[in-house]
Design a protein that fits this description.
The complex is a heterotrimer of chains A (248), B (325) and C (290). With 248 residues, chain A is an alpha/beta fold. Helices cover 37% and strands 24% of the residues of chain A. Chain A has a 6-stranded mixed beta sheet with strand order 6-7-8-3-9-10, sandwiched between helices. Helix content of chain B is 71%, strand content 2%. Chain B has a two-stranded antiparallel sheet. Chain B has a two-stranded antiparallel ribbon with strand order 2-3. Chain B starts with 5 loop residues before the first helix and ends in a 7-residue tail after the last helix. Chain C has a two-stranded antiparallel sheet with strand order 1-2. Chain C contains 11 helices and 2 strands, in the order ααααββααααααα. In chain C, a hairpin with a 2-residue loop joins strand 1 and strand 2. Chain C is 75% helix and 3% strand. Classes of the chains: A alpha/beta (248), B mainly alpha (325), C mainly alpha (290). Chains in contact: A-B, B-C.
């Protein structure tokens, strides 16, 4: 039984078709990358899987639960966490508070009224562990909105893994980064997602080939090919459609 | 976490002593004004729980204030043998239930739409208060609410027709509610409310049920508004549709912004300034509402901190008056 | 209770008149909302001010047609000032402060009107040319109400023409859907906003003058209109002009017949409609996803 199974998924926005019958399977422990040119529908696919949009057709199963059309918070609570392509953090809160928001949610302390936050030592401890992991412990009291871009991206990933999810979805984690920063981020991703199932959308092919154990290529809303990195690298169709031009 | 120092304790004790001794020091007129300030403080803080902590701007907050006032008044007036404190509790619950029902429709909407719906529902309830004469007395209102006989409290009995007793009752209940509010915003629940205000989308992808947390804070704010309205009805010994009108919703808005929406205590200062300011200015000009409106515009344009912004920074940080975090 | 067919028709006509007046006000607000994403609470005060300015011009000159021009122009100027000096200033603080400032302006104008014209109704006489009534199905129907219908439909036609046929209308529609793109195309967006805002204000002012002889001018007229206008927005769908049109007529008819059949529920009909719409179709009749 795959961890995540997407069957014949379509999405259109008031007439504009973006996804045409996507099929996707993720086994436990797999590190799966989705690639494709701009506008291929990668982000839309992410948004449909994680509940931001309801699909027009098709079915999504996660851990045997039918999550098709569920709202984002219900999907997140089942153990599926995501990051965002455009940094999406609590800008007016400190780095510590950002991560703690995720930690509180994971511990089911969303609406609890006893004790106060100040009295929750274990929550604070878990939060600091995550901050340490993403290298932001010494910046924990800085406002997230005032952190450098690279640190904000790390925080984005930190919040995602702080949910301790079974499946992690990362949407272009290296967006807007220099190649040095990208390498750092790859290291970070490898470190924090060890032993977890990962689904990642990425533009940077170096990042993709260094992380992924499986790759799916999406081209104009359809799956063009899916297979091991080796197979994808040698796929003529993929080369013609996409990889060739990207590698310039 | 800031720690309690001796200074905090001294200041708290001093404030408590002054508030407790007030009826012995002040004239009856002054005690009446102080009572108004105390119940309006709770009303203004409850408005600000929505505005500053949850990012929900309500133009119809008097709906719950008015529900509290009317339900307390009606239950004391029309239900034989109604226990005094049960009537207050009923008023508060009415505010909360009204808030939960109306909130259900409103919190799903963002920004302007939310504001518009709160105002429309407020006016809806006002129209009912106006029209349903058999129960609400229409524009004649309901008078003679407070029990004429002393209320038996077990150990001793209290005559709530007395200004001093009303003051102590108001002070007691408002202090409990404010302390509860102050506590709740420091719990994970309060954190959730702030997180949702900060970034709704991110919060929902972290597993937070955004609408539920908004509805909870809306209901809590409505509960506090209901307590405040109930105390208002008892203090005035009278309720009329003005208690549930847009005018009352405007007043609470002015109080919050006068004092400053940036902190928990700002609206309390605002309630005090509002009561004194309107008392003073209405004695020198009939056009005081116009002046109040102009002042409000100036505050919105230039002075978002409100009057609490005038408190020296050092003092503010000492008593964490500066911000909501 | 039984009513003659003629009573029903007269009542329907009456509802249509109020509905069209409501649309006249709501259209300006919807226009501003759709374009600038600002819910202008002061719009209802502009309507009220229009009515009182019209009253004053009428009293001073006795010329209703002059009032019909002067009042909207005066209100449009005020609207321009509000947009230029208040709204533009608070824009950077976000939505809440835009709402708060328009609310403050609503409050101040209402108080100013009470101050200048007194805290009591000022009945406005129907202009001589439009006075009198016509025979309609055996009863008398005031000519002035037909005039309201004519002017409202004329404005509706004018709006449709501007939007569908003129350059400026196309720019406005483009700005509604994508302000940044229009900016990129070299259109002066701030000036366009200023124009639309004062244009919307002028519509409110015009509606006020027209409403004067029909509903009389009174200090609560702004609030009454504000609430009905909001209900129109909820029922019709946020920012939808066709929605505002249909909802205005529905509310006009509902109030007209409601008072006839269940007078006890006067004042709350529009809210009941609003509640029903919120339950059945939360986005409003013509609204897209909210």
């Amino acid at each position: 039984m795959p961890l995540l199974e997407v069957t014949n998924l379509s999405k259109d926005f008031s007439g504009l078709k973006v996804l045409f019958g996507i099929d996707l399977k993720l086994e436990q422990g797999e590190r799966h990358a989705i690639i494709g040119p701009n506008g291929a529908g990668k982000s839309t696919l992410f948004n449909v899987i994680t509940g931001k949009y309801a699909p027009s057709h098709g079915k999504i199963t996660f851990k045997r639960h039918d999550i098709t059309g569920l709202s984002p918070h219900k999907i997140a609570r089942l153990g599926l966490a995501r990051s965002f392509q455009v940094t999406n953090i609590f800008r007016a809160m400190t780095a510590f508070d950002n991560v703690r928001n995720a930690v509180l949610s994971r511990n089911g302390k969303r609406h609890s009224i006893f004790p106060t936050l100040g009295g929750m030592d274990s929550i604070a401890e878990q939060t600091e562990q995550i901050l340490n992991l993403i290298g932001l412990l010494d910046r924990k009291d800085e406002l997230a909105g005032e952190l450098a871009h690279g640190h904000q991206r790390a925080l984005e990933i930190g919040m995602t893994i702080a949910m301790d999810p079974e499946l992690i979805l990362l949407d272009e984690p290296t967006a807007g980064m220099s190649s040095t920063e990208s390498r750092e981020t790859v290291k970070l991703i490898e470190k924090v997602t060890e032993g977890k199932t990962l689904l990642i959308v990425e533009h940077d092919m170096d990042v993709v080939f260094s992380i992924a154990t499986r790759i799916t290529v999406i081209y104009y809303g359809r799956v063009l090919a899916s297979g091991s990195p080796e197979a994808i690298r040698n796929d003529q169709q993929v080369k013609d459609a996409y990889l060739g031009e990207e590698r310039e | 976490m800031r720690r309690l120092t001796l200074l905090h304790i001294v200041v708290a004790v001093a404030i408590a002593a002054v508030l407790l001794a007030a009826p012995r020091i002040l004239t009856v007129v002054q005690v009446r004004m102080l009572t108004e300030i105390v119940y309006f403080s709770l009303f203004a803080v409850s408005f600000n729980l929505l505005f500053a902590y949850a990012g929900l701007l309500s133009f119809g907050h008097s709906a719950y204030f008015g529900l509290g006032a009317y339900v307390t008044a009606i239950s004391l007036k029309h239900v034989p043998g109604m226990p005094f404190f049960a009537a207050i509790l009923l008023g508060a619950i009415a505010g909360a239930v009204g808030g939960a029902i109306i909130g259900f429709f409103c919190v799903r909407r963002k920004g302007s739409y939310f504001a518009l719906l709160t105002l429309a529902f407020n006016q809806f309830l006002w129209a009912i208060a106006w029209k349903w004469r058999e129960i609400t007395g229409g524009d004649d209102g309901i008078g003679g609410i407070v029990p004429k006989k002393p209320v038996d409290l077990g150990i001793f009995s209290v005559d709530f027709t007395q200004v001093g007793s009303k003051y102590y009752l108001t002070l007691f209940l408002v202090t409990i509610c404010l302390a509860l509010g102050w506590y709740l915003i420091r719990t994970p629940f309060g954190n959730t409310v702030k997180a949702v205000k900060g970034n709704e989308e991110r919060a929902s992808f972290l597993g937070y049920d955004v609408n539920r947390s908004k509805l909870l804070i809306f209901t809590l704010a409505a509960f506090f508004a209901g307590v405040s309205g109930s105390l208002f009805a008892l203090f005035q010994d009278f309720v009329a549709p003005s208690a549930i009108s847009l005018g009352m919703s405007t007043e609470v808005l002015f109080m919050a912004f006068l004092g400053g929406t940036g902190s928990f205590f700002g609206p309390i200062l605002g309630a005090a300034i509002f009561v004194y300011f309107t008392d003073w200015i209405s004695s020198i000009t009939e056009r005081w509402e116009f002046i109040l409106g102009v002042l409000f515009i100036v505050l919105v344009l230039y002075f978002h901190q409100g009057f609490i912004g005038l408190v020296p920074a050092k003092l503010k940080s000492l008593f964490s008056l500066g911000n909501n975090r | 209770m039984e009513f003659a067919a003629s009573t029903i028709i007269i009542q329907a006509l009456h509802g249509l008149v109020y509905g069209m007046l409501l649309f006249l006000v709501a259209s300006g607000m919807t226009l501003v909302f759709g374009m600038m994403d600002i819910l202008n609470i002061a719009h209802a005060a502009f309507y009220m001010l229009g009515a009182y300015l019209g009253y004053t011009v009428l009293m001073a000159t006795g010329n209703f047609w002059l009032a019909l021009i002067v009042a909207p122009v005066g209100v449009a100027l005020l609207g321009a000032l509000v947009e230029r000096f208040f709204l533009r200033k608070v824009h950077k603080y976000g939505h809440a402060f835009e709402l708060l400032i328009t609310f403050g302006v609503f409050f101040v104008i209402t108080e100013a009107v009470k101050w200048i014209w007194g805290d009591f109704p000022r009945p406005v006489e129907v202009p001589a040319a439009l006075a009198g009534s016509v025979h309609l199905l055996g009863s008398q129907y005031p000519v002035y109400r037909f005039f309201i219908l004519i002017i409202s439909f004329a404005v509706l036609a004018g709006l449709l023409y501007v939007f569908l046929k003129t350059r400026i209308g196309i720019r406005i529609r483009a700005a509604v859907s994508d302000a940044q793109m229009v900016d990129a195309l070299g259109v002066n967006v701030p000036r366009l906003f200023l124009g639309v805002f004062s244009g919307g204000s002028a519509l409110a002012g015009l509606a006020g003058v027209v409403a004067g002889p029909f509903l009389s001018t009174y200090p609560g007229m702004g609030l009454d209109m504000l609430v009905d206008m909001f209900v129109v927005v909820v029922v019709g769908g946020f920012g939808s002009l066709p929605g505002a049109f249909v909802a205005s007529l529905m509310i006009g008819e509902l109030q007209s017949f409601g008072i006839l059949f269940i007078p006890r529920l006067a004042l709350v009909f529009q809210f009941l409609l609003m509640a029903v719409v919120l339950i059945i179709r939360p986005a409003g009749l013509f609204g897209e996803k909210v």
